[in-house]
Specification:
Length: 269
Amino acid sequence: MNKPPPAAEPPAAEPPADPPAVHARGLTVIRGRRRVLDQLSFDVAPGTVTGLLGPSGSGKSTLIRAVVGTQAKVTGTLDVLGRPAGSAPLRSRVGYVTQSPSVYADLTARQNLDYYAAVLGIPRADRAAAVTRALTDVDLTSHADDLAGNLSGGQSSRVSLAVALLGTPELLVLDEPTVGLDPVLRRDLWNLFHRLAAHGTTLLISSHVMDEADRCEHLLLVRNGTLLAADTPQALREATGSDTVEDAFLRLVESAPTEPAEHPLRGTP
Ligand SMILES: Nc1ncnc2c1ncn2[C@@H]1O[C@H](COP(=O)(O)OP(=O)(O)OP(=O)(O)O)[C@@H](O)[C@H]1O
């Protein structure tokens, strides 16, 4: 009797793709009586540097606040590291650097970091090393013992960034971190962002400076609270036949359906 043919090997299973670090569907935010974000849908891939680019007032800070869970009146789906944005377990996993540096002016840079390290629960024995590492990451060791109140704007922003790095967050959300920095410092910070991403951190970085676009692996282009495009800088340039992301942005604006400058709420008293 013939032996039955061996059962066909099941096709090798694809390794499961990492879930997105940020997953938004139909994300809408109302501020005052205006819809300042309107039906945004996008994903941020883990371990990438994603740029959130758009002109002043386009909704970047609102989107960032929604992601870190500090924005009211958010509707739609917004998951961060697999959990609803703002949920308690995310607090230690998400680092957030606001536009205005949040440091104590009457403490030195090092004392600020030591204080936040204690708040974050870093054991006393590990604190000094964690603080020194964060100061080195943001290139502030030479100002470590200056009062934060005597630091320049860019230096204070870097203290805030160092605070966010203390907790070694999985997702680091930065609102315009390079504003007011000189080109050398800007380059150094972008190098730091890519080093962090190479070690697995996901970075979502807002900027209204289009020439920073090419420093990002992926871009979210926003305007008037809507998402114009979500793609790599190269794909955006190719799709629009543009030499720069700035030109691509302008072409996307020209080809987008005419949007009202604002999205007033209709039908509400
Ligand atoms: N409380 C509020 N009520 C109504 N509209 C508001 C309120 N706060 C902000 N806005 C509007 O929401 C829109 C988005 O603001 P947001 O700060 O998110 O923009 P942005 O892109 O971060 O701007 P910038 O680059 O200047 O910081 C703006 O048009 C702003 O005027």
